[in-house]
Amino acid sequence: MTKQEVLKTYFGYDSFRGSQESIIDSIMEGRDVLAIMPTGAGKSLCYQVPALMMPGITIVISPLISLMKDQVRALNDAGIHAAYLNSTLTETQMEKALSNARRGQYKIIYVAPERLETYGFQGFARAVEISMVAVDEAHCISQWGQDFRPSYLNIVKMIESLPKRPIVSAFTATATLEVRDDILCVLKLQDPAVTVTGFDRENLYFEVREQKNRPQAVLRYVREHRGESGIIYCATRKNVEAVYELLEGNGVPVTKYHAGLSNEERKRNQDAFIFDEKPVVVATNAFGMGIDKSNVRYVLHYNMPQSIENYYQEAGRAGRDGERADCVLLYSAQDVMLNQYLIDNKEVRADMTPEENEAVQQRDRKRLQAMARYCTTKDCLRAYVLQYFGERACDCGNCSNCLAEYEEVEVSETCRHILQCVRATRGRFGINVIVGILRGERKNKLLSYGFDKLVCFGAERDCSETYLKQVITEMVAKDALYVTNDKYAVLKLGASAQEMMGQERPIMMRVAAGRQVLSGGGVDSGAERDGVGGNGRSGKRRKSSRISDTLTSRGLELFDRLRETRVVLAHREGMPPYIVGTDKMLMDMCVKLPLSLQEMLQVNGMGEYKVEKYGEDFLETIREFTQGRREILYYQERG
Ligand code: ADP
Ligand code: MG
Q1: C-alpha distances in Å from residue 59, one per residue of 110, 435, 437
Q2: Which CATH number covers residue 599?
């Protein structure tokens, strides 16, 4: 079979995505490869397709047991013989699996890195023909990566102990140069073909919202996205519990996940989410490793994460099926302090020297700053992230900053007033006090310090709180001010304060349109009123489309029926619905309306094996719905 045939027959896809094809070609030419591609780009296929075309067995090293199980399940469901070896198997099961493997029963075997050293595995590996060792999540080999796994260092030993060196391929979504070099060196890749592909995920919409009432914002968002699957990330267990209670109390089908729950409960909740019994989950960042549920339609961050790396990985769990999905971050300046605290109080790692620990802490602080800047930048959010990962990018037109209407306004006066105010109060107060003084608020706290006697008291009385905060944030970004890193978060004059004070050119800043002056009603919380995820404000259109933009209302009805059928099939087979098929696949059925098994083969994601297994069931649903009539259930190109 050619690679195209393998792709169609087993996976049901018509074409390769991005650099999948060139990576597969390199492997088939016998070259080692290192592929760095973002989450959801389709790395698995890059080693699974060649695995099916090469004579021997492919060993896949994967760090996560849940991931392994999922992948093997998906492969078996596509008619590919695969197995996994990890600590969840009993001794007897392990022996059985190994003896099957010796007899060549499996083309692909997933192995946990800890298993490589075991006697049983070594005996097996030397006795059979191994065509390739594929190292998934290869960043685990790097001590500088987020999830270093010492057992990954065993991989090379294992490879070197084999009678014939197999092709070695490595895959990761971590893009930094340090990690890349570590992988190349530690795995001893030979003349590897290195591929780094675009980190952009076009189908994701990015948004940052500064939100005063976060619980309400979350509730509103979830209600507006009823029936969709989503993840809500919180920084702490306490927040998880609170948000969970709120949603649960309001009738949302929701579950929760954090390290404080028992293993069983975590497993149960995770399954409820995966099987779409509870399509919404509130979780700490302990959740998600190894979950590749494809139909997650939104990832909401209740708190700001500690780094862009974390954020992009977590947000990237949305929309893995390539359909439109939202990544919304609810930002509050307090999160910066919270995270600072978490970094400062992180446990010292015993497997690293004090210097290494110190270096890691410094790195973490730097990452946090970059994350905080993401939350306050007025520029394109996607471009910001891509640039962070070393890619060039321009405005995307599909993030809250690109869609918001900003205007360039002159802020020279305001900046000077702010600097004067910070100086007059000797850099001992936080943003709220400074803003209060400038707006001339007659609050007890301000009066008790005698601030009403300051020259700058009320100097910006016509400006809204939001506007002044925006300007201050920009001034922090420009180093004219800085915020102390302690729990007081006091504003002090920064390195370029003097320069700004004396600057003759007008100082210009981008601020959200219509924000600078108090509006008639005296409300300045435009962001609050809109809620999250709203795009009506600017009238500009978002790019990628939702299922509901593609299908007519009747089409959506069929889509729902097909989803029900998928749940029934999932129960029958004892696996998650998204392994039976993605939302995208169901949508394609609604568009193509196959009325025979032959036509079913044309549907995106329906390979031969799947058509055989599920084709009839889906056909029945379609036939019943359409009564065998040809109709058009999608919007044809408009204008
Ligand atoms: P990664 O490991 O890079 O995060 P996966 O290998 O888990 O991504 O793939 C993500 C999703 O993309 C899966 O649902 C997979 O079936 C789908 N996919 C991969 N390659 C293709 C392709 N060529 N056409 C359509 N869908 C694909
Ligand atoms: Mg993967």
Answers
A1: 6, 61, 66
A2: 1.10.150.80
